[in-house]
Automatic annotation (TrEMBL):
Signal peptide: 1-20
Domain of life: Bacteria
Name used for this protein in its record: Sn-glycerol-3-phosphate transporter
Keywords: Signal
Biological source species: Methyloversatilis universalis (strain ATCC BAA-1314 / DSM 25237 / JCM 13912 / CCUG 52030 / FAM5)
Length: 158
């Protein structure tokens, strides 16, 4: 179930104005697997992450993701960030950094992520991605916990 904060954030992202110039992108992302550095049998390695992200022509972005965290708790991540294309290395490579509110690490798992207070934490997530046409794949660094592998598809460009 989405929180009130999440509903407000999604409403803001969906209400972003479209301009006449091209470069606006709305994408859907799926995160099927997390590799944890620590092989704790309690860890959930299949978060089922589903996300929606808007990217402006300036490459600034905003989004929301919904998943099951490392301890199988429902979790939400509402973020803003920036993407940099690495055309000098490859026309398909990019780096992305996002920062925002991570909701869901509660109870006995509250201390498993830094800056967490009663289930709400601040997170910064850097990622390296590869995109061809409408399809992308990313490896996102989850602090000292591990990496998440994600796949995306651009739903629309205008």
């Amino acid at each position: 179930m989405i929180s009130a904060f999440g509903a407000a954030w999604l409403a803001c992202v969906c209400a972003l104005p479209a301009q006449a110039d091209e470069g606006h992108v709305l994408s859907l992302q799926f995160g099927p697997y997390v590799h944890h550095w620590d092989r704790d049998p309690e860890h959930n390695n299949t978060p089922g992450m589903l996300g929606l992200e808007y990217t402006a022509p300036s490459r600034w972005l905003a989004g929301a993701s919904f998943l099951r965290n490392s301890f199988d708790q429902p979790t939400e991540y509402y973020y803003a960030g920036k993407r940099w294309d690495l055309d000098g290395l490859s026309p398909h490579l990019y780096v992305k950094v996002t920062a925002g509110a991570l909701l869901g690490y509660t109870g006995r798992y509250e201390d498993k992520i830094p800056f967490n207070h009663k289930g709400t934490a601040f997170a910064v997530i850097p990622a390296l991605g590869y995109q061809v046409d409408r399809y992308s794949a990313q490896v996102a660094l989850l602090g000292t916990a591990g990496v998440m592998f994600t796949f995306g598809i651009d739903l629309g460009r205008w």
